Amino acid sequence: MAGTQTVTGLNGITPVQQMMASCSGAFMTSVIVTPFDVVKIRLQAQRTPFYKGKCFLYCNGLMDHLCVCENGNASAWYKAPGQFRGTVDAFIQIVRNEGLKSLWSGLPPTLIMAVPATVIYFTCYDQLRNFMKYRLRYDGNYVPLIAGATARVGAVTVISPLELIRTKSQSRRLTYRELRNVIQTAVTQNGWLSLWRGWGPTVLRDVPFSAIYWFNYELMKKQLCKKYNVSEPTLTVSFSSGASSGAIAAVLTLPFDVVKTRRQIEIGELDMMQSQKKLSSTWKIMERIVSQSGFRGLFVGLLPRLMKVAPACAIMISSYEYGKSFFRKINKERERKRATSQALAKKIHTS
C-alpha cells in the first residue's frame, strides 16, 4: 500500500499526471477567451481627452495621446479617434479598423504564459490542499481558500514579466519589433525589476480571486455531488461550479484588475517622456480613477471580464477534473493488473 501511495500520490495520481491534466485545457481556454481579454484591456486603457489648447500629439508605443486645438475637433489639424462606447462597440471598432486578427493580439505570450502558470498554479493548489488534508489532518472549509491563495502567489511571481508583455501587446496593436523595443527600453532605464511592475496590484487581484474562486468552487462541487449522488464531479458539475465561482470572484476583484492594467501601461508613458517620476501606488491610482470617473471607473470592462473569466474557469476546471479522473482510472487499472499478476505469480510459486 505504501508503494501504491508513492506511485500515485495522495489523490490517486502522480504530480506529473497532475501537470498533464492542468495543461489539457490551457491552450483551448487561451484561444477562446483572448478576444474578450483584448477588449477588456482596451476599455480599461482608455484615457479621457486632454484639454483644448494644448495641441500635443505623441505615440508612446502603447497608445496615441491627443490634445486638440482651440477650434475644436471639427476643424482641428488632427481629429481625435472615437472612444469605445462599450464592449460590443469595442469589438466592432477593433475588427473594422484593425482586422479580425487583432482580437487575438498577445496570444503567443498568452500561450507561453498559460502553460507554466497553469502547471504551477493547479499542481501547487492540489499538493497544498492534500498536504493540509492528509498530512496535517485539517479538513475545514478554509483549506481551499488557503491553498488557492498560496499557490497563486507563486504563480504570479513566476509569470509576472510575461503578463506585463501580454498587456502591452493587447493595449495597442504592436509589431514584435516595437514590443521588443519597449521592453528593452524599460530594462535599460530601470533594470530587470521593471518587468515585475504591476506585481503588487496583480497579487491584490489574483490572490483574493484565487481564494474566493477555490472556496466557492469546492463548496459548490461538494453540494452538487451530494445532490446528484456521485462520488467524483461529472463534467456538468465541474463546468457549472467553475463558471459560477469564477464569475463571483471576477466581479469582486475587478477594481484591482483595472489598476493593474493602468499601472502596467504607465511604464510606457514614463519611459517615452524620460520622466524620473515614480510609478503611482495602487491606492493612488484608485483615487485617481474614482475622482475622474467615479466608482464606476473601477468596474470598467466588467462585461468582457465576465465573458472571459466565467467560461475560462469552467473550461479549465472541467478539463482538469476530467484529466485527473482519466489518470485515476488508468492508475487503478494498472494497480489491479499488477495485483493480479503478483497474486498469480505467488500462486504459481507456492504450487
Description:
By secondary structure, this protein is mainly alpha-helical. It has a single domain (about 15-45, about 105-330), classed as Mitochondrial carrier fold. Helix content is about 70%, strand content about 0%. The protein contains eleven helices and two strands, in the order αααββαααααααα. The chain has helices at about 1-10, 15-25, 25-45, 85-100, 105-135, 145-170, 175-190, 200-225, 235-270, 280-295, 300-350, and strands at about 55-60, 65. The chain has a two-stranded antiparallel ribbon with strand order 1-2. Helix 5 packs antiparallel against helix 6 and helix 6 packs across helix 8. It is elongated and about 85 Å long. It starts with a helix and ends with a helix. Residues about 1-5 and about 50-80 have low confidence and may be disordered.
